[in-house]
Amino acid sequence: MNTSVLKKYLDKEGKVIIYPSKSKNKMLILEYLASKFDSQRNYTEKEVNETLKQYHTFNDWALLRRDLFDAGFLGRSSNGSVYWKIEVQ
Questions:
Q1: What is the mean pLDDT of each run of 10 residues along the chain (89 residues)?
Q2: What's the pTM?
């Protein structure tokens, strides 16, 4: 993870303050957010939302949750009731 680039998008508390439009930087943010999840457990949608709320300031956890899933950082059941972290190599 490129921490020097990542720091541009985080406040002093480690919360994402800007969600970049550039794909490469967006993936860096998603990787950072994915690191906040434990790969040894399952999460409800509410738990995913609550975790994401702790790590960003722009109040759009639904966008982040969808992007984490679309980018392959989180998996989810077909009905969306269960989420899990996917370990990316």
A1: 88 96 95 96 97 96 97 96 90
A2: 0.93
26 three-class SS: helix
Residue 33's SS3 state is helix
Tokens of 64: 């982040």
CA distance 59 to 56: 7
Using CA of residue 42, residue 30, residue 71, residue 65, what is the dihedral sign? positive
CA dihedral 21, 23, 27, 30 (to 10 degrees): 30
Question: What are the tokens at 61?
Answer: 């956890």
First to last CA, the chain: 12
As to burial, measured by CB atoms within 10 angstroms (0-12 exposed, 13-18 middle, 19+ buried), residue 70 is exposed
